[in-house]
């Protein structure tokens, strides 16, 4: 037990080295973890201009099983298809989240059945819980009184934000039927109207601010 505690303290100290950095999470299973290639750079630029962050404009890529994830307080994960975490990946992610890290998973359409199954490897005793519209994450910098905004229609279902908590701390956010990342991409990629892109970027800024301050 003492060894585990010391390991978590060590990992937390690594997280604090890059207090305002984020990275893309690369995972196994064949899913396109690399989708939305312009999304994070645009979100970072928006955050640096509007919520006083100083994030490196070019996000790094880290693998789920690597200790490199502990250098970043915020990990972003997306894709359309299959996700697979080995037991080592799951343990690494669990240690990361319990030692102060934050993971945002944005379903780019089709990811939900795979990621929900794999998250049970990370936290066998925890369930994804839908966040109410009055959760602080929806009001960190920009108000979203109705909760998660709808960016792309896909199946026409309502957008939902789910979380996993360690005691009272939200350590993982899963955004579903919203597709925020598509709204963060360069305008010509999806031809979204400016107001839709703005909603996506503002909600993304709320998530970033929440992750860095909680």
Walk me through what this model shows:
With 214 residues, this protein is of the alpha/beta class. It has a single domain, classed as Domain of unknown function DUF4159 (Rossmann fold), CATH 3.40.50. 37% of the residues lie in helices and 18% in strands. The protein is built from seven helices and seven strands; from the N terminus they run H-E-H-E-E-H-E-H-E-E-E-H-H-H. The chain has helices at 2-17, 39-50, 87-98, 112-122, 180-184, 187-190, 194-213; strands at 22-26, 60-63, 74-79, 102-107, 129-130, 160-166, 169-176. A seven-stranded mixed β-sheet has the order 2-1-3-4-7-6-5. Strand 6 and strand 7 form a beta hairpin. The longest helix is centred in the last third of the chain and has 20 residues, at 194-213.
Q: How is this fold's topology laid out?
A:
Elements: H1 2-17, E1 22-26, H2 39-50, E2 60-63, E3 74-79, H3 87-98, E4 102-107, H4 112-122, E5 129-130, E6 160-166, E7 169-176, H5 180-184, H6 187-190, H7 194-213
Parallel strand pairs: 1-2, 1-3, 3-4, 4-7
Antiparallel strand pairs: 5-6, 6-7
Task: Report low-confidence residues grouped into runs of 5 or more.
Answer: 1-17
CATH topology: Rossmann fold
Characterize the largest beta sheet: strand count, sense, and whether it forms a barrel.
7 strands, mixed
Strand numbers in spatial order across the main sheet = 2-1-3-4-7-6-5
The CATH C-level name is Alpha Beta
Notable features of this structure?
Rossmann fold; 7-stranded mixed beta sheet; 214 residues; alpha/beta; single chain; 7 helices; 37% helix
């Amino acid at each position: 037990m003492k060894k585990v505690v010391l390991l978590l303290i060590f990992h937390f100290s690594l997280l604090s080295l890059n207090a305002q950095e984020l990275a893309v999470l690369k995972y196994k299973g064949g899913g396109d973890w690399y989708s939305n290639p312009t999304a994070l750079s645009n979100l970072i630029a928006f955050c640096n201009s509007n919520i006083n962050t100083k994030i490196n404009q070019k996000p790094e890529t880290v693998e789920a099983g690597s200790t490199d994830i502990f250098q970043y307080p915020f990990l972003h994960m997306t894709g359309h298809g299959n996700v697979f975490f080995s037991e080592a990946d799951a343990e690494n992610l669990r240690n990361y989240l319990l030692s102060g890290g934050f993971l945002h998973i944005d379903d780019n359409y089709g990811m939900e059945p795979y990621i929900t199954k794999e998250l049970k490897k990370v936290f066998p005793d925890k369930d994804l819980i839908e966040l109410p519209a009055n959760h602080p994450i929806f009001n960190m910098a920009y108000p979203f009184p109705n909760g998660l905004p709808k960016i792309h229609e896909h199946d026409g279902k309502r957008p939902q934000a789910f979380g996993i908590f360690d005691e009272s701390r939200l350590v993982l956010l899963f955004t579903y039927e919203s597709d925020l990342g598509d709204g963060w991409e360069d305008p010509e990629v999806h031809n979204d109207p400016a107001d839709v892109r703005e909603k996506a970027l503002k909600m993304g800024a709320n998530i970033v601010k929440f992750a860095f301050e909680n």
